[in-house]
C-alpha cells in the first residue's frame, strides 16, 4: 500500500545521480574485507546471527558514497558484536556492489535473498533504491536506506530512511540562507535530468520567497551537458546573484567552481549533501572550494564524544576521514539494533515476520546518532532530526 507523504520531510544526502568521483583509499577495501570476515566468523561462532544485507556502489563513479556506507555499516556491526551483540545474537553484514545501477541493484538484492537476508541497509543511491524498494515491498523485506533521498525510496510501509529527503532539503536550504541572511539574490544551477537535483530545486524555489530570497537566475543542465557551465554562470553573474545554490553532485560542482574562478566570478556557493566529496575530486584545486557551504547532517570535526570516537575508529580501520554517508550507515545499523531490541525479534524468524515487527518498532525507538540527537521515525519512514550546515575551511569541512 502506498504511504502518505508528509509535507515535513528533511533532506540528506544523497542521493542518486550520474557522477564521476574517486574511490576510497587503497587500504580501505582490504580493511573492510578483513573486518567483514572477522564479523562473519564471530557470528558463525555464536551460532545465531541476524543477516543484514547491504547494497551500494562500491565501484564506479559513485564509489565514494557506497564504500563509505559499507565501511560505516561494518564499523557499527563490529562494535555491536564486540559488545555482546543484540538480544543474545550477533549481526552479520553482507554488502553487495550495485555500481549505482538500478538493474544491478536488483540483481544484488536477489543475491542477498538467496544468502538469507533478513533486513536490508540500502540502497545507497536513489534510483537503484527505488527499483529495489519494489522488490522489497513484494517480499515484505524491511528496508532502511542510509542515503536514498528521493521521495519514492520510502513510499511503502516497509521502508524507512536515515537521511533527509530531497524535498525538504531544498526548503531547509532556503530557510538556512534566509535565516542567516547569507544573501537575498540567489542563482540556481541544477541538473534537470536527475530526480535528486530537480526535486531539491523545486522546493527551494517554492520556499525562497518566504525567506526574502529572490531567485534571479535558475539554469539547468543534463547528464549530457555537464562539462561546460559558462552560460549558467554568466547568467548568474549578470543577474547580480550574491550566492549560487548548487543542488548537485560534487563532480559537476568542482567544474563550476573552476569555471567561475576563470571568469572572475566570486559569489558564495551553497549546496546540499551531494557536494560531500568535493574535496576528493582528482586534480581539483581545493582552494577553489574555500568557504563553500553545504547542508549536511554530519561534520567530522564536531567536538561531541560520539563523533570524535567514530572518526577515530573509522580512521584507524580505513585510513581516512568519514563522510556523512558513513555516518548515515553507522546510524542505520544502530537503528536496526534498537528496532530488534524494541520488537524482540529473533534470528530464527522469517524476513517477513521481522519486517512486520519492525514497522511498529521503528516509530517507537529513539537513538542519539551521529546525524542527529534523539532521532525518531514517522510511520511514513521519515527521520525527525535537525539539519546542520558545514563550511569548507583550509581544505576541510568545519561545523557552522
Full CATH superfamily name of the largest domain: Response regulator
The number of distinct structural domains comes to 2
* H and E string: HEHEHEHEEHEHEHEHEEHHHEEEEE
- The CATH first-level class of the largest domain comes to Alpha Beta
Termini Cα gap: 40 Å
Q: How many DSSP helices?
A: 11
Radius of gyration: 20 Å
Largest sheet: 7 strands, mixed
Proportion of residues in extended strands = 15-25%
Shape: elongated
Structural key phrases:
Rossmann fold, seven-stranded mixed β-sheet, disordered N terminus, five-stranded parallel β-sheet, 15 strands, 400 residues, 41% helix
What can you see in these coordinates?
It contains eleven helices and 15 strands. It is α/β, with parallel strands linked by helices and 400 residues long. The protein folds into two domains: 222 residues, Rossmann fold (3-Layer(aba) Sandwich), CATH 3.40.50.2300; 130 residues, Rossmann fold. It has a seven-stranded mixed β-sheet, with helices on both faces. Strands 2-1-3-4-5 form a five-stranded parallel β-sheet, sandwiched between helices. Helix 2 crosses helix 10 and helix 10 packs across helix 11. The N terminus is likely disordered.
Amino acid at each position: 500500500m502506498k504511504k502518505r507523504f508528509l509535507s515535513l520531510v528533511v533532506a540528506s544526502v544523497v542521493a542518486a545521480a550520474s557522477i564521476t568521483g574517486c574511490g576510497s583509499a587503497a587500504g580501505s577495501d582490504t580493511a573492510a574485507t578483513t573486518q567483514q570476515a572477522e564479523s562473519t566468523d564471530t557470528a558463525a561462532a555464536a551460532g545465531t546471527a541476524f543477516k543484514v544485507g547491504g547494497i551500494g556502489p562500491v565501484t564506479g563513479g559513485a564509489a565514494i558514497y557506497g564504500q563509505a556506507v559499507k565501511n560505516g555499516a561494518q564499523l557499527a556491526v563490529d562494535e555491536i558484536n564486540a559488545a555482546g551483540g543484540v538480544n543474545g545474537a550477533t549481526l552479520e553484514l553482507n554488502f553487495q556492489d550495485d555500481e549505482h545501477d538500478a538493474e544491478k541493484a536488483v540483481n544484488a538484492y536477489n543475491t542477498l535473498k538467496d544468502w538469507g537476508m533478513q533486513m536490508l541497509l540500502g540502497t545507497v543511491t536513489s534510483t537503484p533504491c527505488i527499483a529495489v524498494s519494489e522488490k522489497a515491498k513484494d517480499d515484505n523485506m524491511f528496508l532502511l536506506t542510509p542515503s536514498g533521498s528521493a521521495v519514492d525510496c520510502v513510499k511503502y510501509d516497509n521502508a524507512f530512511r536515515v537521511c533527509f529527503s530531497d524535498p525538504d532539503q531544498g526548503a531547509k536550504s532556503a530557510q538556512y540562507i534566509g535565516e542567516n541572511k547569507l544573501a537575498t539574490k540567489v542563482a540556481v544551477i541544477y541538473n534537470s535530468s536527475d530526480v535528486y537535483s530537480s526535486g531539491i530545486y523545486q522546493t527551494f524555489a517554492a520556499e525562497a520567497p518566504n525567506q526574502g530570497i529572490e531567485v534571479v537566475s535558475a539554469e539547468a543542465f543534463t547528464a549530457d551537458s555537464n562539462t561546460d557551465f559558462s552560460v549558467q554562470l554568466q547568467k548568474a553573474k549578470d543577474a547580480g546573484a550574491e550566492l549560487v545554490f548548487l543542488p548537485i553532485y560534487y563532480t559537476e560542482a568542482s567544474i563550476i567552481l573552476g569555471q567561475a574562478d576563470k571568469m572572475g566570478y566570486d559569489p558564495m556557493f551553497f549546496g546540499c549533501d551531494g557536494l560531500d566529496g568535493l574535496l576528493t575530486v582528482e586534480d581539483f584545486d581545493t582552494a577553489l572550494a574555500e568557504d563553500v557551504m553545504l547542508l549536511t547532517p554530519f561534520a567530522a570535526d564536531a567536538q561531541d564524544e560520539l563523533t570524535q570516537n567514530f572518526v577515530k575508529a573509522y580512521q584507524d580501520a580505513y585510513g581516512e576521514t568519514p563522510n556523512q554517508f558513513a555516518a548515515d550507515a553507522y546510524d542505520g545499523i544502530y537503528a536496526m539494533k534498537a528496532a530488534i531490541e524494541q520488537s524482540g525479534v529473533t534470528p530464527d524468524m522469517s524476513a517477513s515476520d521481522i519486517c512486520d515487527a519492525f514497522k511498529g518498532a521503528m516509530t517507537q525507538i529513539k537513538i542519539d546518532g551521529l546525524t542527529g540527537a534523539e532521532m525518531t521515525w514517522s510511520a511514513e519512514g521519515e527521520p525527525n532530526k535537525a539539519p546542520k550546515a558545514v563550511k569548507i575551511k583550509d581544505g576541510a569541512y568545519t561545523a557552522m
